[in-house]
Design brief:
The complex is a heterotrimer of chains A (228), B (223) and C (247). By secondary structure, chain A is mainly α. Chain A is built from nine helices and no strands. In chain A, 82% of the residues lie in helices and 0% in strands. Chain A has one domain. Chain B has one domain (35-164, 178-222). Chain B is globular and about 65 Å long. Chain C has 247 residues and is of the alpha/beta class. Chain C is built from seven helices and nine strands. In chain C, α4 crosses α5 (153-163) and α5 crosses α6. The chains are: A mainly alpha (228), B mainly alpha (223), C alpha/beta (247). Chains in contact: A-B, A-C, B-C.
């Protein structure tokens, strides 16, 4: 007959697949994220490299710089997910066809995969170039995943908010940084613990709680943001 | 009735101001008369956080309680006033920090919290000014306010721990932990109550002004 | 266009299976019969659109000042008016893409009234500013939207066949006439009961216009509703009502 073949999850998967298909054909976000991250990386290693950093300085400073690189790369490349829909006017067709929650989750998982890919690329290079000795790589990997999720979730929601405004470029940074600040502080603290070999402490549950909060609030707010 | 309440507020605040200088004793361990600043700084930073929460609550009421324009207006005015009180709190706080700790800015947890609150206020107002259509302006800024409300509390749990690790000689001997005499407590509480009432009175006034000006421009457009 | 109803007697069991595992009510033909189930006819209730006093302003500019109308099944409402008279704004309000400042819009299918969010997903819209993903082919675009609308992608490709669209061409490389055909394909993908067509024959050549008119006529003969906005009142059949927004 005419069966309803897709469930909500299939709808979200369709959004995710569409994002990656478009992305792989234009490579816009990948190029932006990658080039931005590498340029910042070069600046960091050139300024810190020849002078070298002592062990204690390295433990204090280098994790911070890693997260600064990730934050600015995400701000450069992720908002496009929603901003481009509004600019090319494909958002009209999306508003008519998509379920808001499925759309949000599809875009969120797409952003997450972009951030994780970026982290997988940047972190080994960063560690090698700055000769950073990481005592607990497992904790660092976990922090990168949980922190990366928080970056993607917060950025996706803020991108949806600013996509309907003017002057979207600067507005994204202005709106996103206060929201992402707690995440960054937690991620930096955990990264420092990973480098120094300290236990994670109470910061890890707080980071996971932050991720959960942003997800829940995002799902709650997105229909109001997306629909007129 | 409203006039009587307004007069009461002004008398209350005058009493608080006089009491801050005459009635309350100087705090121990403070340089000179500098502890007087606290009687203004603490209430104002308290009010700035009240404004933050109030804006978030009104935004929730707007989004999920029928999209009434009065809730959106209330949230926006709360943010504007919160910005004013927040800036005043930051300035008074940094003046006091200069006297007490030698530097205008130390990234003490409370200083950082107020800065983040100011960042949120600024972002909210920047968002509002970049949206022309009234419906989307109300809707999107309300969403951002709720997001801010959800995310900001994390700072209160993270800050003290992080600041301790960054500044081992802790400067956390913040206002609340000092030995306070009962007179100081009285003036502080009275000041907080007075400034909170001032906030809500100003808020009410500004909401009414904006509502009237909207009605005026609507009437003018109708020709 | 529609398959013959299957008259073998699966009836009750098939309907329960449908509801339980596919989580959707089986679609009904106009008249209320359910394909594949004989002997079952629910009460006849048909789609109906009614709007009254719709107002919308943008800043200082009042575009719609209290517009009313209604559309019965099988009928078409033609909205005309010069540029800037609010035709597109009205269409967007009816589609649920824009919230009106005042007035009511009531649309119901099968007796249940639909709010703006549901209405948005149920209607078929053709509009000049409707755009598709330039990096995807025509087929990929329609498959994507079919998946979003939770209908079988094969249906979408079937509609494409009638519209004579090149399946493998990137949507960014389409001519304006082909793009208009793609908009029609998008609108008809999910067999909507209500079509909202804003300048539906824009950029069409003679062949395209003929196909589109056929599709519109078939839709109306099936008992569907249509609201068509056009700068001029072209030659339309089935025009039940004419709403002129001219000043």
């Amino acid at each position: 007959m005419w069966p309803r073949i897709s469930t909500w999850a299939a709808e979200a998967t369709a959004v995710f697949a569409k994002e990656w298909r478009c992305e792989l054909r234009t490579r816009y976000a990948l190029n932006t994220l990658g080039l931005f991250a590498f340029t910042t990386l070069v600046v960091v290693s050139v300024s810190l490299g020849p002078l070298g950093v002592s062990l204690s300085q390295g433990t204090a400073v280098l994790p911070v710089l890693l997260w600064v690189i990730l934050l600015f790369s995400v701000a450069a490349g992720l908002p496009r997910a929603f901003v481009q829909e509004e600019e090319t006017q494909t958002a009209i067709a999306l508003r008519l066809a998509a379920t808001p929650s499925a759309l949000f989750c599809g875009k969120l998982v797409y952003g997450l995969t972009l951030v994780l890919a970026l982290e997988a690329l940047i972190t080994p290079v960063y560690v090698a170039v700055t000769s950073l000795k990481v005592v607990s790589p497992g904790l660092l990997a976990g922090t990168l995943i949980a922190g990366g999720y928080g970056l993607a979730a917060g950025s996706t929601l803020v991108a949806a908010i600013i996509a309907q405004a003017r002057s979207k470029g600067t507005l994204f940074s202005v709106l996103a940084f206060p929201v992402l600040l707690p995440l960054l502080l937690l991620a930096v603290e955990l990264s420092r613990s990973a480098v120094a070999g300290d236990p994670a402490g109470v910061a890890l549950p707080q980071l996971l709680l932050y991720d959960a909060s942003v997800t829940v609030v995002g799902l709650m707010l997105f229909p109001a943001v997306w629909n007129p | 009735m409203k006039n009587a309440l307004a007069w009461l507020l002004w008398i209350w605040l005058s009493v608080v101001i006089v009491g801050a200088f005459k009635y309350a004793p100087l705090a121990k361990g403070f340089i000179g008369e500098s502890s007087r600043i606290l009687f203004f700084h603490v209430p104002m930073s308290w009010v700035s956080f009240v404004a933050f929460i109030a804006a978030g609550v009104w935004s929730l009421m707007f989004l999920f309680g029928g999209r009434k324009p009065k809730h959106d207006r209330a949230a926006a005015v709360a943010v504007q006033l919160g910005l004013v009180f927040g800036v005043l709190a930051t300035v008074t706080g940094s003046l006091w920090a200069r006297i007490m700790w030698g530097a205008y800015w130390n990234w003490d947890p409370r200083q950082t919290s107020i800065v983040v609150a100011l960042l949120f206020y600024g972002a909210y107002l920047a968002l509002r000014s970049s949206l022309e259509d009234a419906d989307s302006r109300a809707r999107l800024s309300a969403a951002y306010a709720v997001l801010g409300l959800a995310v900001a509390p994390f700072l209160f749990f993270i800050m003290p721990r992080i600041m301790f690790s960054l500044h081992p000689q802790s400067v956390i001997n913040a206002q609340g932990k000092i030995e306070v005499e009962s007179r100081m407590v009285q003036v502080l509480l009275a000041g907080s109550a007075g400034f909170t009432a001032l906030f809500f009175w100003l808020h009410n006034l500004q909401c009414r002004i904006e509502s009237l000006s909207e009605r005026k421009s609507a009437l003018r457009d109708r020709g | 266009m529609l398959p013959e109803p299957d008259t073998r007697c699966h009836g009750w069991a098939l309907r329960r299976l449908n509801q339980r595992f596919l989580r959707a009510a089986p679609p009904t033909l106009p008249g209320g019969a359910i394909p594949g189930i004989s002997g079952y006819s629910p009460p006849v209730s048909s789609p109906h659109l009614q709007f009254a006093g719709v107002r919308r302003r943008f800043g200082r500019l009042s575009v719609l000042k209290g517009v009313s109308g209604s559309v019965e099944p099988g009928a078409m409402l033609l909205v005309t008016g010069p540029n800037g008279s609010g035709k597109s704004t009205l269409m967007r309000c009816l589609a649920g893409l824009l919230a009106p400042d005042g007035g009511t819009i009531a649309y119901q299918e099968n007796g249940t009234p639909l709010e703006a969010a549901e209405r948005r997903r149920r209607v078929g819209v053709v509009a000049p500013d409707l755009a598709f993903y330039a990096e995807l082919t025509v087929a990929e675009n329609l498959t994507f939207f079919a998946r979003l609308r939770r209908v079988s992608p094969e249906r979408g490709l079937g509609v494409l066949g009638r519209l004579d669209l090149p399946l493998d061409r990137l949507a960014g490389n389409l001519s304006s006439g082909m793009r208009q055909r793609l908009r029609w394909g998008f609108a008809l993908l999910h067999s909507p009961r209500l079509l909202l067509l804003d300048e539906p024959f824009q950029n069409f050549d003679a062949a395209g216009e003929r196909i589109a008119r056929e599709l519109l006529e078939e839709h109306l003969e099936d008992g569907g509703l249509a609201v068509v906005a056009n700068p001029s009142s072209l030659d339309f059949h089935h025009v039940a009502a004419h709403l002129d927004l001219g000043r």
